[in-house]
Amino acid sequence: MTDAQPMIEAAGVIKNFRRKTDLAERIAMRVGLAQEPGTVHALDDVSLSIRRGEVVGLVGESGCGKSTFGRAVAGMLPLTGGVVRRNGQDIAKLKGAEARAMRLATQIIFQDPMSSLNPRKKVLEIIGEAPRLHGLVARGGVRNLVEGLMDQVGLDPAMINRYPHQFSGGQRQRIGIARALAVNPDFLICDESIAALDVSIQAQVINLLVRLRQDLSLTLLFISHDLSVVRYISDRVVIMYLGRVVESAPTDRVFAAARHPYTQALLEEIPRIDRRGHRFSSVKGEIPSPMNPPGGCHFHPRCPLAMDRCRVERPMLKQAGRDHAVACHLDGGFGRPKPTLFPTQSTLQAAESGLL
Amino acid sequence: MIAARIRGESMGARIARGLLSSPKATIAAIICVVLITSAILAPLIAPQNPYDLTEIDFFDAKLPPMSEGYTGMTYLLGTDGQGRDMLSAMLYGLRTSLAVGVTAGLLAMMVGTALGLVAAYRGGVIDSFIMRFVDLMLGFPTILVALMILVVFGQGVDKVILALVFVQWAYFARAVRATAMVETGKEYAEAARCLGIPAWRIMGGHILPNCLPPLIVIATIQVAGAIAAEATLSFLGIGLPITEPSLGLLIANGYQVMLAGLYWMSVYPGLLLLVLVFSVNIVGDRLREILNPRLAQ
C-alpha cells in the first residue's frame, strides 16, 4: 500500500480570505471613514501528505479550516501560499489536458445531499453529464455507464429517470458518490459527507465508501468533526485546530496515546457506554476567531496546560513516534502523555508552577 | 416550494394549480388567453381588414357604436375618422401591441439574463461593472430614455423594440443576478466545477434553470410594462409608424376628437389596453405568490 512518494502532498499551504472591497469602500478607507476588512486565516501553514491507498481522517471543530483544506487539495481554490503536489507535480502549474486530468482525478463528495444535487436534473443527467462531456464514454453508452454506477453504489438502476427530490437523504448521497465516480477519480475528498444523514444511514454510506475504496483502490481524505466515525474508516487521523495541524498519527495511536491536549479533550467527549454517568463538558471556551487568532499556540487560551511559552511561540509539528507528529511545547515537544498513568517530569513541573 | 418538490409536482402543474386557486387570477388568466388568441386570429375574426382600403367606406366615417353603415354592416364599436371599423382596428392594434411588447420583453429577458448570470458567476470587476451599469439604467425614467433613443434613431417597429429592450434589460439582470448568486453558492454548482464542466455550461445548464421562477414573474410584469410603454410612445407620436397602428396610436388618433363627443374612437382602445395590462399584471402578481416560497403559506 505504501509508495515512497506521497500521492498528495500539501506543503505549507496558506489560505487567507478577504472580503472584497469596491471602489467606494476603498475611497472611504483612504479617508478613514471605513475600516479595513479583516483577513480570515483559514489555513495557516498546513502540511500534510497522503500516501496512495491511504484513508486519512481530518478532524476538527467547525471553522477550523478542514473544508477549506479539502477544496485546496482538490485545486478548487487559489492558494495564498504554499503548494499542493500530486505525484510530485504542483497542481496549480498544470495546463490544458494535464490540468483537466488532474481535476477529474480528484473528486469531492459534498456534505448536504439536498443542495449538492441539481434539483432540475434527472439522475441520468446528474451522473452522466461529466463523462459524456469529457468523452469518457461514447454517446450511446451513457445510460449503460450510469446504470452500472447506480448499481455499484447500491441504487436501483430503474430510478435513472427520477429527480433528486424523489430520493431519500441516503440515496441522494449515493447519487453524489456515483457522480464523483463517473469520471474515474483515484482520490476522493469526503467533506462531512455523512454529517447530514441519520445515524443508521451514516453506517450504510460509510460501508459503501469502505467497499468502494477496496474495489477501486481509492485514496480518501475523510473530513469530519466526528472522531468515532473517523476511527472506523481511517488509517491515519489528522487533527486540525484553527487553521493548523496539531496532531497526526495512525488511528490506533490517536485513540490509545494522543499527545496533544486538544486531541485528548476531543477524545474525552466521545460518548461511551462504559461511562454512562459521565457529565460531558465541552472544551472550555469558544473557538477563537480566525480573523484574529491568538499568538503562539492557537490553542493556548483553552488549554488547561498552557505555559508562558505557548502564548508567544508557535509549536511546530515534531515527531513523537513512528508516523506520529504533534505540535505542542509540553514534554519537550511530545505533548502530554495520556494523563491516567504516571505524570511525566514536565507535567509535574507544570503542576508545581501552578499551571495545572 | 419544498412541499411541492416532495409531492413531485412539476413547475407547470404548480403554476396551473396556483392560478386556479385564486378566482381573481383565474379570470385574469382567461382574459389574457382570450386577448392573445383573438390577437393571433385577428385576420380571421375581425369583421373587416382595416388596412384594406377597398373594404373601407369613407361615408361610414365617425359612426357611433352599434350603427349600421352604407355597406350594410353593423359597426359594434363605431368607426373612426376614415370609416374603419373600430373593433377590427382594435384587434389589429392589439396584435401589434402584443407582438411589440412580447418581443421586446423576451429580448430584454435574454440580454438581462445573460448579463445577470455572468455578473453573478464571475463576480469581481465584471460584476461591479455590469451592476453599476444596471444602477445607471434604473436611475433614469423609462420613458425619458426610450424617448431619447427614438429621437436619435428615428421611428419604426425595430427601433421601438430596441428602445424597450434598452430600458428593460436591467430589471432582468438585477433579478437574475440575485438568484444566480444564491444558486452559484450551492454545492451542486461547486460539484459541477469539480467535474470540470465548462463555465458557460454551468451557467446555462445548471444555474439558469434554477433561476426560472423569479424570471417568469419578472418577464410577465415586464411584458405588461413594455406594452404600456409602447402605447405611451405611440400616443406621443414617436412610437410605431401610422401604417401599423397599435392601441396607443388608436388612442392618440381618437383623442383629438374626444371632446367633440366622438368618445368611442379613443375610449374603447384605451379600455382594451387597460384590461390587457391589468390582466397580465394580476397574473404576474399571482405567479410571484406561487413561485416565491416565502410568500406561499
TrEMBL record, chain A:
It is a peripheral membrane protein. It comes from the Bacteria. GO terms for cellular component: plasma membrane. GO terms for molecular function: ATP binding; ATP hydrolysis activity. Keywords: ATP-binding, Nucleotide-binding, Transport. It is found in: Cell inner membrane. One of its GO terms (biological process) is peptide transport. Pfam families: ABC_tran, oligo_HPY. Residues 18-267 form the ABC transporter domain. The keyword ATP-binding applies. NCBIfam families: oligo_HPY. Belongs to the ABC transporter superfamily. This is ABC transporter ATP-binding protein. It comes from Pseudooceanicola sediminis. The lineage of its organism: Bacteria, Pseudomonadati, Pseudomonadota, Alphaproteobacteria, Rhodobacterales.
From TrEMBL, chain B:
The chain crosses the membrane at residues 25-46, 98-121, 133-154, 160-176, 215-242, 262-284. Residues 94-284 form the ABC transmembrane type-1 domain. It comes from the Bacteria. It is found in: Cell membrane. One of its GO terms (biological process) is transmembrane transport. GO terms for cellular component: plasma membrane. Its main location: membrane. It is a multi-pass membrane protein. Keywords: Cell membrane, Membrane, Transmembrane, Transmembrane helix, Transport. The keyword Kinase does not apply. Belongs to the binding-protein-dependent transport system permease family. This is ABC transporter permease. It comes from Pseudooceanicola sediminis.
